[in-house]
Amino acid sequence: MMDDELLPSTAGATVADAAYHILSGSFRSLSLALLAFSPANKSLEHIKTIPAFGPHQYLALNAAKDVVYTTSWATPPILSSWALQRSNGSRVEDVKHMNTVQITATSSYIDIPPPYNFVYSAGGPTGEVHALASDGSFGEKVQQFLFVPEDELEKADKSRIALRYGLHGVEFSSTGYGFIPVLGTSTIEMYRRDPTTGRLEHIFSSPSPRGPSSHDGPRHVKVHPNGKILYCVTEHTNYLDTYEIKDGTLHHISSHSLLPSNLTNKPSHSSSSVDPHLVSDFRGGTLMLTPSSPAFPAPIALFTTTRGATPAQKGWTSVFRLDRDGHVIPTSPPSDAPDQTPLQDVADDLVAVRFETPTSSGKANAVNIRSKDDDSSSFWILLTDDDRLADKSGAVRVLEWNGWGPDQDLRIVAEWPSGSEVEGPEKGELEFTGASHAIWLD
Hints:
Low-confidence stretches: 1-16, 268-272, 334-342, 421-429
Order of helices and strands: EEEEEEEEEEEEEEEEEEEEEEEEEEEEE
Mean pLDDT: 88
Shape: globular
Oligomer: single chain
Number of strands: 29
């Protein structure tokens, strides 16, 4: 299945009149930024800056869309919950701190899987499970799971540096499995989750498809809604790996470059004594599936990002086409070949749409996606930028993508800041620079 069968004949974008609200974290500021995007005007408005508790906020929104959970690089390590205050049940007017809990080690990602009664975080040597209180804030800690022997935990690095070689993310499938990528071991750890207690049980360790000495650095994973396909971005070698989830294990299906074919896809130094995080020209970042909707219950694409290791290299966003079962397929079928063309026989540059970011993106290039409307195969994409060049223009960008039609290119339609100076303390606001991760709130 590779052509217009993926898209209803009635599919088409409509422009929403109402604004969509956005919350962004920062790598270099102790604050969050509340923004609003106008699809009609294609503009980003800064609503307010909210004092927070440390740099590097990765954000997750609950199912009710009234509470946001954030990580932090604060010392000691913490997680925080934030209530969204809406007017008329719609417009987000303010973000209020609910509570903060201390955790053992700095966390990178955070997730709230169905049935939405537990929050999961992971980073460095540990991961933690917290129950949710009745108001949606953090409740009691119900589990701490370790990636180091218990007798080594006290001396283990628990700072953000440990994210380079320890646990880096946490995601869940609709079938009750949890997945944690581990940069240093080049493995994806698989868990079984008890939906009643929230606890995780380790069941499988999936090695890199390129071998134990690959230094891949699995960084971020997502699971298809069908619960059968897992996608992983590697930070050091810049691959998108796809796996079949079957019988409590992972089976590698395919690998695709996050970069155009004219750019290197591997670290420039293969020695095991050299940290590959420091020698690669590019660093694989995040990935996200296009959201499901009544018109499109299965994601039609997977977005990935990679950052430049230094300001000299610009980052990249790639869009991979998916069939209904979640497998990567060519962006368009070859005119002289049947739909069954083996994917390994198709050049990588024909498997993805590429977009070069305006800067290296620094430590960011995190992506978040929303449909233009329920009947649309077109999307608005949030992309964050931590490069110093973005401090005055483009820390948060909105991109437009019109799906798998004749116009498949991504384009920037709005950015904040837009060239003027970011509001600073002299204007009664906290400074906000170095966007880390931004999410749609509506």
